[in-house]
Protein backbone atom coordinates (compact mmCIF):
# COMPACT_ATOMS: atom_id res chain seq x y z
CA UNK A 1 0.00 0.00 0.00
CA UNK A 2 2.88 2.35 0.75
CA UNK A 3 4.53 1.50 -2.63
CA UNK A 4 1.42 2.57 -4.52
CA UNK A 5 1.42 5.88 -2.68
CA UNK A 6 5.07 6.39 -3.63
CA UNK A 7 4.44 5.64 -7.33
CA UNK A 8 1.44 7.93 -7.52
CA UNK A 9 3.24 10.51 -5.41
CA UNK A 10 0.42 10.67 -2.97
CA UNK A 11 0.75 11.83 0.56
CA UNK A 12 0.82 9.09 3.03
CA UNK A 13 -1.83 9.20 5.72
CA UNK A 14 -0.49 10.01 9.10
CA UNK A 15 -0.63 6.85 11.13
CA UNK A 16 -2.95 7.17 14.01
CA UNK A 17 -1.79 6.27 17.40
CA UNK A 18 -3.36 3.14 18.70
CA UNK A 19 -4.81 3.82 22.10
CA UNK A 20 -7.93 3.18 24.13
CA UNK A 21 -9.87 5.99 22.45
CA UNK A 22 -9.23 4.69 18.90
CA UNK A 23 -10.12 1.14 19.86
CA UNK A 24 -13.42 2.11 21.54
CA UNK A 25 -14.28 4.64 18.81
CA UNK A 26 -14.41 7.62 21.12
CA UNK A 27 -14.23 11.11 19.60
CA UNK A 28 -11.42 13.15 20.97
CA UNK A 29 -11.94 16.28 18.86
CA UNK A 30 -15.48 17.12 20.04
CA UNK A 31 -15.95 20.90 19.93
CA UNK A 32 -16.39 22.38 23.34
CA UNK A 33 -19.33 24.74 23.69
CA UNK A 34 -18.38 28.15 24.79
CA UNK A 35 -20.24 29.56 27.70
CA UNK A 36 -22.53 32.36 26.74
CA UNK A 37 -21.93 35.63 28.35
CA UNK A 38 -24.28 36.12 31.21
CA UNK A 39 -26.51 39.13 30.93
CA UNK A 40 -27.29 41.56 33.65
CA UNK A 41 -28.53 39.81 36.73
CA UNK A 42 -31.78 40.87 38.35
CA UNK A 43 -31.14 43.03 41.41
CA UNK A 44 -32.48 41.85 44.71
CA UNK A 45 -35.89 43.22 45.58
CA UNK A 46 -36.88 43.92 41.96
CA UNK A 47 -39.85 41.99 40.58
CA UNK A 48 -39.25 39.66 37.66
CA UNK A 49 -41.86 41.38 35.48
CA UNK A 50 -40.32 44.81 36.00
CA UNK A 51 -36.82 43.49 35.25
CA UNK A 52 -38.09 41.88 32.02
CA UNK A 53 -39.51 45.22 30.90
CA UNK A 54 -36.34 47.18 31.64
CA UNK A 55 -33.63 44.74 30.55
CA UNK A 56 -33.29 41.98 28.01
CA UNK A 57 -30.67 39.28 27.44
CA UNK A 58 -30.99 39.68 23.67
CA UNK A 59 -29.37 42.92 22.56
CA UNK A 60 -31.07 42.85 19.16
CA UNK A 61 -34.51 42.36 20.70
CA UNK A 62 -36.74 45.40 20.36
CA UNK A 63 -37.69 47.01 23.61
CA UNK A 64 -41.31 48.06 24.21
CA UNK A 65 -42.09 51.60 23.04
CA UNK A 66 -42.33 54.39 25.57
CA UNK A 67 -44.88 56.34 23.49
CA UNK A 68 -48.29 55.38 22.16
CA UNK A 69 -48.00 53.48 18.90
CA UNK A 70 -50.24 53.57 15.85
CA UNK A 71 -53.04 51.04 16.44
CA UNK A 72 -55.29 51.75 13.48
CA UNK A 73 -57.74 49.00 12.40
CA UNK A 74 -55.67 48.36 9.25
CA UNK A 75 -52.40 47.76 11.09
CA UNK A 76 -53.66 46.41 14.41
CA UNK A 77 -50.77 45.78 16.78
CA UNK A 78 -48.15 45.16 14.09
CA UNK A 79 -46.53 48.55 14.45
CA UNK A 80 -44.56 48.27 17.67
CA UNK A 81 -42.62 51.50 17.38
CA UNK A 82 -43.81 55.05 17.54
CA UNK A 83 -43.18 56.93 14.36
CA UNK A 84 -41.67 60.25 15.28
CA UNK A 85 -40.73 62.88 12.76
CA UNK A 86 -41.75 60.79 9.76
CA UNK A 87 -44.02 63.43 8.23
CA UNK A 88 -45.06 67.01 8.64
CA UNK A 89 -47.27 67.95 11.57
CA UNK A 90 -50.88 68.66 10.68
CA UNK A 91 -51.66 72.34 11.21
CA UNK A 92 -54.02 73.44 13.99
CA UNK A 93 -55.78 76.77 14.34
CA UNK A 94 -57.52 78.73 17.09
CA UNK A 95 -60.97 79.15 15.53
CA UNK A 96 -64.38 80.28 16.83
CA UNK A 97 -67.31 77.89 16.94
CA UNK A 98 -70.98 77.91 17.91
CA UNK A 99 -72.49 75.06 19.91
CA UNK A 100 -75.86 74.04 18.40
CA UNK A 101 -77.04 72.91 21.84
CA UNK A 102 -77.04 76.49 23.08
CA UNK A 103 -79.94 78.75 22.23
CA UNK A 104 -78.25 82.03 23.15
CA UNK A 105 -75.91 82.01 20.14
CA UNK A 106 -72.75 82.27 22.26
CA UNK A 107 -69.55 82.28 20.20
CA UNK A 108 -66.63 80.39 21.74
CA UNK A 109 -63.14 79.47 20.52
CA UNK A 110 -61.05 76.32 20.62
CA UNK A 111 -58.13 74.60 18.90
CA UNK A 112 -59.08 72.61 15.83
CA UNK A 113 -57.37 71.07 12.85
CA UNK A 114 -57.42 73.24 9.78
CA UNK A 115 -58.85 70.36 7.71
CA UNK A 116 -61.86 70.05 10.10
CA UNK A 117 -62.86 73.69 10.32
CA UNK A 118 -66.00 73.34 8.21
CA UNK A 119 -67.43 70.37 10.13
CA UNK A 120 -70.13 70.57 12.80
CA UNK A 121 -69.21 70.71 16.46
CA UNK A 122 -68.63 67.00 17.33
CA UNK A 123 -70.21 67.12 20.80
CA UNK A 124 -73.52 68.43 19.45
CA UNK A 125 -74.64 64.83 18.85
CA UNK A 126 -74.96 64.32 22.61
CA UNK A 127 -77.56 67.07 22.94
CA UNK A 128 -80.62 64.88 23.55
CA UNK A 129 -83.98 66.16 24.79
CA UNK A 130 -87.27 64.58 25.82
CA UNK A 131 -90.36 65.51 23.83
CA UNK A 132 -92.86 67.01 26.27
CA UNK A 133 -96.49 67.21 25.21
CA UNK A 134 -97.78 70.77 25.04
CA UNK A 135 -101.44 71.75 25.30
CA UNK A 136 -103.47 74.55 23.80
CA UNK A 137 -105.86 76.90 25.55
CA UNK A 138 -108.83 74.92 24.28
CA UNK A 139 -107.42 71.61 25.51
CA UNK A 140 -106.66 73.06 28.92
CA UNK A 141 -110.13 74.53 29.37
CA UNK A 142 -111.83 71.32 28.24
CA UNK A 143 -109.70 68.61 29.88
CA UNK A 144 -106.97 69.92 32.21
CA UNK A 145 -108.70 72.20 34.70
CA UNK A 146 -108.12 71.30 38.35
CA UNK A 147 -109.07 72.77 41.73
CA UNK A 148 -105.63 72.23 43.28
CA UNK A 149 -103.67 73.40 40.24
CA UNK A 150 -104.02 76.78 38.59
CA UNK A 151 -103.16 77.55 34.99
CA UNK A 152 -100.03 79.44 36.03
CA UNK A 153 -98.74 76.56 38.15
CA UNK A 154 -99.46 74.07 35.38
CA UNK A 155 -97.62 76.18 32.79
CA UNK A 156 -94.65 76.55 35.14
CA UNK A 157 -94.54 72.80 35.73
CA UNK A 158 -94.54 71.95 32.02
CA UNK A 159 -91.89 74.59 31.36
CA UNK A 160 -89.60 73.13 34.04
CA UNK A 161 -90.18 69.61 32.73
CA UNK A 162 -89.13 70.75 29.27
CA UNK A 163 -86.11 72.64 30.58
CA UNK A 164 -84.71 69.93 32.88
CA UNK A 165 -85.82 66.80 30.94
CA UNK A 166 -87.95 65.32 33.75
CA UNK A 167 -85.18 65.42 36.34
CA UNK A 168 -87.63 65.61 39.20
CA UNK A 169 -85.18 66.44 41.96
CA UNK A 170 -84.07 69.55 40.05
CA UNK A 171 -87.63 70.46 39.07
CA UNK A 172 -88.78 70.27 42.68
CA UNK A 173 -85.78 72.33 43.78
CA UNK A 174 -86.47 75.04 41.19
CA UNK A 175 -90.18 75.16 41.83
CA UNK A 176 -91.13 78.73 42.69
CA UNK A 177 -94.33 79.43 44.60
CA UNK A 178 -94.40 83.16 44.10
CA UNK A 179 -93.99 83.83 40.37
CA UNK A 180 -93.41 87.54 40.90
CA UNK A 181 -90.61 87.01 43.44
CA UNK A 182 -87.06 85.90 42.75
CA UNK A 183 -86.94 83.72 45.87
CA UNK A 184 -87.35 80.00 45.48
CA UNK A 185 -89.97 78.02 47.32
CA UNK A 186 -89.27 76.97 50.91
CA UNK A 187 -91.12 73.75 51.76
CA UNK A 188 -91.01 74.25 55.51
CA UNK A 189 -92.37 77.79 55.61
CA UNK A 190 -94.69 77.67 52.58
CA UNK A 191 -97.89 75.65 52.86
CA UNK A 192 -98.39 75.67 49.07
CA UNK A 193 -95.05 73.97 48.36
CA UNK A 194 -95.17 71.02 46.00
CA UNK A 195 -93.47 67.71 46.68
CA UNK A 196 -91.95 65.50 44.02
CA UNK A 197 -94.95 63.18 44.22
CA UNK A 198 -97.37 66.08 43.62
CA UNK A 199 -95.40 67.33 40.63
CA UNK A 200 -95.11 63.88 39.05
CA UNK A 201 -98.78 63.11 39.64
CA UNK A 202 -99.88 66.33 37.92
CA UNK A 203 -97.49 65.83 34.98
CA UNK A 204 -98.54 62.23 34.27
CA UNK A 205 -102.18 63.20 34.68
CA UNK A 206 -101.78 65.86 31.97
CA UNK A 207 -99.92 63.55 29.57
CA UNK A 208 -102.44 60.72 29.97
CA UNK A 209 -105.37 63.07 29.32
CA UNK A 210 -103.71 64.58 26.24
CA UNK A 211 -102.85 61.15 24.81
CA UNK A 212 -106.41 60.01 25.29
CA UNK A 213 -107.91 63.20 23.84
CA UNK A 214 -105.62 63.15 20.79
CA UNK A 215 -106.16 59.38 20.29
CA UNK A 216 -102.46 58.58 20.06
CA UNK A 217 -101.48 54.98 19.29
CA UNK A 218 -98.37 52.87 19.74
CA UNK A 219 -95.64 53.88 22.13
CA UNK A 220 -96.72 57.52 21.94
CA UNK A 221 -100.18 56.69 23.25
CA UNK A 222 -99.05 54.44 26.12
CA UNK A 223 -100.68 55.42 29.41
CA UNK A 224 -98.51 55.84 32.51
CA UNK A 225 -100.09 54.96 35.85
CA UNK A 226 -98.58 56.86 38.79
CA UNK A 227 -99.91 56.52 42.35
CA UNK A 228 -98.60 59.33 44.53
CA UNK A 229 -99.83 57.82 47.81
CA UNK A 230 -98.21 54.48 47.06
CA UNK A 231 -94.95 56.24 46.19
CA UNK A 232 -95.00 58.11 49.52
CA UNK A 233 -95.55 54.87 51.43
CA UNK A 234 -92.76 53.19 49.50
CA UNK A 235 -90.29 55.95 50.35
CA UNK A 236 -91.41 55.90 53.99
CA UNK A 237 -90.83 52.15 54.21
CA UNK A 238 -87.45 52.53 52.54
CA UNK A 239 -86.48 55.23 55.05
CA UNK A 240 -87.47 53.00 57.97
CA UNK A 241 -85.52 50.12 56.50
CA UNK A 242 -82.45 52.31 56.05
CA UNK A 243 -82.64 53.76 59.58
CA UNK A 244 -82.50 50.38 61.34
CA UNK A 245 -79.84 49.91 64.00
CA UNK A 246 -77.53 46.86 64.06
CA UNK A 247 -79.43 45.52 67.07
CA UNK A 248 -82.74 45.70 65.20
CA UNK A 249 -81.22 43.93 62.21
CA UNK A 250 -79.94 41.13 64.46
CA UNK A 251 -83.37 40.72 66.10
CA UNK A 252 -84.99 40.54 62.68
CA UNK A 253 -82.60 37.80 61.59
CA UNK A 254 -83.40 35.81 64.74
CA UNK A 255 -87.14 36.13 64.11
CA UNK A 256 -86.73 34.98 60.53
CA UNK A 257 -84.74 31.91 61.59
CA UNK A 258 -87.38 31.08 64.22
CA UNK A 259 -90.10 31.43 61.59
CA UNK A 260 -88.29 28.99 59.32
CA UNK A 261 -88.05 26.45 62.16
CA UNK A 262 -91.78 26.80 62.92
CA UNK A 263 -92.67 26.24 59.27
CA UNK A 264 -90.44 23.15 59.14
CA UNK A 265 -92.16 21.67 62.24
CA UNK A 266 -95.57 22.45 60.76
CA UNK A 267 -94.74 20.63 57.54
CA UNK A 268 -93.48 17.65 59.53
CA UNK A 269 -96.74 17.45 61.54
CA UNK A 270 -98.79 17.68 58.36
CA UNK A 271 -96.81 14.85 56.82
CA UNK A 272 -97.33 12.64 59.89
CA UNK A 273 -101.05 13.44 59.90
CA UNK A 274 -101.40 12.39 56.27
CA UNK A 275 -99.58 9.12 56.96
CA UNK A 276 -101.86 8.33 59.91
CA UNK A 277 -104.98 9.16 57.92
CA UNK A 278 -103.84 6.77 55.19
CA UNK A 279 -103.24 4.08 57.83
CA UNK A 280 -106.72 4.49 59.34
CA UNK A 281 -108.44 4.57 55.94
CA UNK A 282 -106.54 1.49 54.80
CA UNK A 283 -107.49 -0.42 57.98
CA UNK A 284 -111.20 0.35 57.63
CA UNK A 285 -111.30 -0.67 53.97
CA UNK A 286 -109.40 -3.90 54.76
CA UNK A 287 -111.85 -4.83 57.53
CA UNK A 288 -114.83 -4.29 55.22
CA UNK A 289 -113.31 -6.52 52.54
CA UNK A 290 -112.47 -9.25 55.06
CA UNK A 291 -115.97 -9.32 56.57
CA UNK A 292 -117.53 -9.47 53.12
CA UNK A 293 -115.51 -12.57 52.21
CA UNK A 294 -116.68 -14.53 55.31
CA UNK A 295 -120.34 -14.55 54.30
CA UNK A 296 -123.47 -13.13 55.89
CA UNK A 297 -123.14 -14.98 59.20
CA UNK A 298 -119.37 -15.18 59.61
CA UNK A 299 -117.08 -12.73 61.47
CA UNK A 300 -113.39 -12.71 62.22
CA UNK A 301 -112.97 -11.57 65.81
CA UNK A 302 -109.17 -11.76 65.72
CA UNK A 303 -108.93 -9.48 62.65
CA UNK A 304 -111.41 -6.97 64.09
CA UNK A 305 -109.47 -6.83 67.35
CA UNK A 306 -106.19 -6.17 65.54
CA UNK A 307 -107.77 -3.47 63.36
CA UNK A 308 -109.29 -1.79 66.41
CA UNK A 309 -105.92 -1.78 68.16
CA UNK A 310 -104.27 -0.09 65.15
CA UNK A 311 -106.92 2.63 65.07
CA UNK A 312 -106.57 3.29 68.80
CA UNK A 313 -102.80 3.64 68.45
CA UNK A 314 -103.22 6.01 65.52
CA UNK A 315 -105.68 8.17 67.47
CA UNK A 316 -103.29 8.31 70.42
CA UNK A 317 -100.53 9.57 68.15
CA UNK A 318 -102.86 12.22 66.73
CA UNK A 319 -103.84 13.38 70.21
CA UNK A 320 -100.19 13.44 71.23
CA UNK A 321 -99.32 15.81 68.37
CA UNK A 322 -102.24 18.07 69.30
CA UNK A 323 -104.22 17.45 66.12
CA UNK A 324 -108.00 17.02 66.41
CA UNK A 325 -109.77 15.71 63.37
CA UNK A 326 -112.56 13.57 62.21
CA UNK A 327 -110.42 10.46 62.71
CA UNK A 328 -110.87 10.71 66.51
CA UNK A 329 -114.63 10.35 66.16
CA UNK A 330 -114.27 7.40 63.83
CA UNK A 331 -111.89 5.61 66.20
CA UNK A 332 -114.21 5.90 69.18
UniProtKB/TrEMBL annotation:
PANTHER family: DNA METHYLTRANSFERASE 1-ASSOCIATED PROTEIN 1, DNA METHYLTRANSFERASE 1-ASSOCIATED PROTEIN 1 FAMILY MEMBER
Broad class of the protein's primary localization: nucleus
DAMP1 SANT/Myb-like domain ranges (all copies): 121-210
Record protein name field: DNA methyltransferase 1-associated protein 1
Intracellular or extracellular location(s): Nucleus
Bias-annotated ranges (Basic and acidic residues): 266-275
One GO term describing the cellular component: Swr1 complex
Domain DNA methyltransferase 1-associated: 251-319
Compositionally biased tracts (Basic residues): 302-313
Pfam families: DMAP1 (PF05499), SANT_DAMP1_like (PF16282)
Amino acid sequence: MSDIHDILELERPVPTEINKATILGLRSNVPVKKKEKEGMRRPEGMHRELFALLYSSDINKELPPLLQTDTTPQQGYKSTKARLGMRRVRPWAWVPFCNPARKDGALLCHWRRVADQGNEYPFAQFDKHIDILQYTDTEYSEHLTSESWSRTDTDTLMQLCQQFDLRWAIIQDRWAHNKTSTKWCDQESNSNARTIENLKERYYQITNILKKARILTGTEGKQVHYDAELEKKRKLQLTKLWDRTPKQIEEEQQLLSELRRIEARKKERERKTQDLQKLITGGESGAADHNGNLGPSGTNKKYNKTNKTKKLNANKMLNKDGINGSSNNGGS
